[in-house]
UniProtKB/TrEMBL annotation:
Keywords associated with the record: Methyltransferase, Transferase
E.C. no: 2.1.1.156
Residue ranges the record marks as coiled coil: none
GO molecular function: methyltransferase activity
Source organism of this protein record: Stieleria varia
Protein name: Glycine/sarcosine N-methyltransferase
GO process annotations (BP): methylation
Enzyme class: transferase
InterPro entries the UniProt entry points to: Methyltransf_25 (IPR041698), SAM-dependent_MTases_sf (IPR029063)
Record domain Methyltransferase: where: 41-136
Length: 257
């Protein structure tokens, strides 16, 4: 059975409704938190590129980087269809080697948690910092673990697009607080207009973070990135969030020193 990340179109459908609110937030954060004008922007782990495409449409010089060739092929197809340009690069976000410096970067909805060790997480943050101009910002969004986490949560979403009805079920099937890993199972059932049903199943690990663990990681890279603002998945630039154990959906704005 094919995996989730081999099907950018299903992945893209799930997050499509979030895109507009994220883009608005990014632009406000560029204005208010970056200490430079933002023109060139990087998305490490860009996936299906919904944000690369939306930001290119707003006039930013975008680069999307991802490990997955099928994701980047999908991004390039969307760009072509909308007559937009952006750079897409196959690469590992823990050791990026791009020819430009950027004014801003973003990585939302848990992509960062694909990095399973502290070493890789720190390497990623340093790699982003190396690619940012002074005063540029990195917007990082991820779920944090509440202290009383319900460890085998299940979520189900249904979306409709172009006559295809897609139900995505995400379940935590393994959870190890000591190793700081949870394994997610994603099941997609796509019912096409013709009645044909396609199923996609993926299982992948994500690193888990408590508030204390994320604060400790940010402290390790504080020589290059300062924590400039904390928000949540409401994406409201006027509402900051408190970085404590009650914060479960964090959007952190780090600024290059
Ligand atoms: C959740 S998806 C991307 C979502 C995208 N940021 C968005 O908000 O629409 C995660 C992506 O991270 C990519 N990825 C995972 N580990 C990576 C790494 N070490 N370097 C680059 N990309 C990576 C996967 O290939 C996948 O496309």
């Amino acid at each position: 059975m094919a995996t989730w990340y081999d099907h950018p179109e299903y992945f893209d459908m799930l997050f499509r409704d979030e895109t507009e609110g994220e883009v608005k937030f990014f632009e406000k954060a560029f204005e208010r938190i970056a200490k430079r004008k933002v023109k060139r922007v990087l998305e490490p782990g860009c996936g299906s590129g919904r944000l690369v495409v939306a930001m290119a449409a707003e006039g930013y010089e975008m680069t999307g980087l991802d490990l997955s060739e099928s994701m980047l092929n999908y991004v390039n197809k969307q760009l072509k269809r909308k007559k937009l340009t952006a750079e897409t690069v196959i690469g590992d976000m823990t050791q990026m080697d791009l020819p430009h410096k950027y004014d801003a970067a973003f990585c939302t909805f848990n992509t960062f948690r694909h990095l399973l060790s502290e070493k890789d997480a720190e390497a990623h943050l340093r790699s982003v910092a190396n690619h940012l101009n002074k005063g540029g910002i990195y917007i990082l969004g991820l779920h944090l673990l509440p202290l009383d986490a319900f460890e085998h949560a299940i979520e189900r979403f249904t979306t409709n697009y172009g006559g295809t009805r897609v139900t995505t079920t995400i379940k935590v099937i393994e959870f190890d607080r000591r190793k700081r890993i949870e394994v997610l199972r994603v099941l997609v059932k796509a019912t096409k207009r013709s009645g044909v049903i396609e199923r996609v199943k993926s299982e992948f690990p994500l690193r888990v973070y408590t508030c204390r663990q994320l604060k400790s990681l940010f402290k390790k890279v504080d020589d290059v990135l300062e924590l400039a603002a904390v928000h949540d998945y409401e994406y409201d630039i006027d509402e900051t969030a408190t970085f404590d154990d009650d914060l479960t959906e964090g959007v952190f704005v780090l600024r290059k020193r």
